[in-house]
UniProtKB/TrEMBL annotation:
UniProt feature, compositional bias: Low complexity: 303-325
Organism name: Exidia glandulosa HHB12029
Pfam family, one: Polysacc_lyase_14
Top-level lineage group: Eukaryota
InterPro entries: Polysacc_lyase_14 (IPR048958)
Residues annotated as domain Polysaccharide lyase: 56-273
Gene3D superfamilies hit by this protein: 2.60.120.200
Region spans: Disordered: 290-325
Protein's name in the database: Polysaccharide lyase 14 domain-containing protein
Length: 351
């Protein structure tokens, strides 16, 4: 049923035969607890396009021509936070490892420009500290974490991480090929380790393991279309036990802090299949779970880097454009559902 042992799970995917032990919930602001909608940006629930199964709902984000950075004009994209549905509180101190998954649809011809932000989990020592853990924040970085994703030029992907600024974190993250450390903003983790499809879905699933306070045993791992494309270990994601998971920072915009990042035309992106789980003790591959679906050793190349001018789109890739071999664009939703989208049985709906 599950690719990993879980203690609770939820999904906005449509009901499918054989789904047990997971709450299937409606894609709805009230159900998920949506709060702090950025600048009242307009977003709507629509029918998911492409190969999504019948009945799948999606959030539609719109990026007007010339939009970049959520504080600029014209404003575009999508931005809010949510803790998840009732009964799935990630902020309990006993929750130390979660997985958050969704699928994103960039239409054929999408112009990626220089890059843009995508959703991911977040947390902190208090709700207020956690909410403010982005946008170039430098104060109290030790009291929060924000782990959104990002697309770069030509759809190159990465984890865009705000974590405590320590030498140990810098060293651990820099072991991943094409990690870029920017002391003014977040860390670009393994830039170009995969590529977002156009004209089809790309399914991503992020596993986050909080460190034991005082130790450096935190982990980040990202699956793309069912394959582990990067894993960072030896991290200090928090410095106190008060820093816990708070939910999902669901944000997307072009940028970037200046208009060189702006979209040259009106564009749209769909998000579907939002799913989350609290992972049980022993779910980490470093805790002896041989069945954990890691990629082979070639999916991660460990070479120290640190230059902020690294090329985008380089490094080991996974997925691809809409004419790839099916493990990327054409097969994105069904493969990821089978392996990492929290509920394996739901995958049948995408076949």
């Amino acid at each position: 049923m599950f690719p990993l042992p879980v203690t609770s799970a939820w999904s906005t995917l449509p009901a499918a035969p054989g789904v047990n032990g997971v709450d299937l919930v409606k894609l709805d602001n009230t159900v998920l607890g949506v709060t702090k909608i950025l600048h009242d940006l307009d977003f709507s629930v629509v029918t998911a396009p492409g190969s999504a199964p019948n009945g799948t709902s999606a959030w539609l984000a719109t990026y007007p021509k010339g939009s970049y950075n959520p504080t600029g004009e014209p404003r575009g994209g999508i931005g809010f936070y949510f803790p998840g549905p009732s009964g799935h509180d990630w902020s309990d101190a006993s929750t130390t490892q979660i997985m958050f998954s969704y699928a994103v649809y960039f239409p054929t011809g999408f112009q990626f420009v220089k890059g843009g932000k995508l959703p991911g989990p977040y947390g902190g020592a208090s709700a207020d500290e956690a909410f403010a853990c982005s946008g170039g924040r430098q104060e109290d970085r030790a009291g929060c974490f924000d782990l959104r994703l990002m697309w770069r030029t030509a759809g190159a992907g990465e984890i865009y991480a705000y974590v405590p600024e320590t030498d140990d974190n810098t060293a651990a993250l820099s072991e991943l090929q094409n990690t870029v450390i920017d002391n003014s903003y977040g860390v670009s983790v393994a830039r170009g380790s995969f590529k977002f499809a156009t004209g089809d879905w790309t399914a991503v699933a992020q596993r986050v393991k909080l460190n034991t306070v005082g130790q450096k045993d935190g982990e980040l791992e990202l699956f793309v279309n069912g394959k582990s494309v990067l894993q960072a270990t030896g991290l200090e994601i928090r410095t106190s036990a008060a820093s816990v998971f708070r939910g999902v920072h669901f944000q997307s915009f072009f940028g970037g802090s200046d208009n060189s990042w702006a979209t040259p035309i009106d564009q749209q992106v769909h998000f579907a299949g939002m799913s989350g789980a609290v992972l049980a003790a022993g779910a980490s591959p470093n805790e002896g779970k041989a069945a954990f679906p890691l990629g082979d050793s070639s999916t991660v190349t460990r070479t120290p880097t640190g230059s902020s001018d690294l090329p985008t789109g380089t490094g080991t890739t996974s997925g691809g454009d809409s004419d790839s071999d099916g493990t990327g664009a054409a097969g994105a939703l069904r493969v990821s559902g089978a392996l990492v989208a929290v509920v394996a049985a739901v995958a049948a709906a995408f076949i």
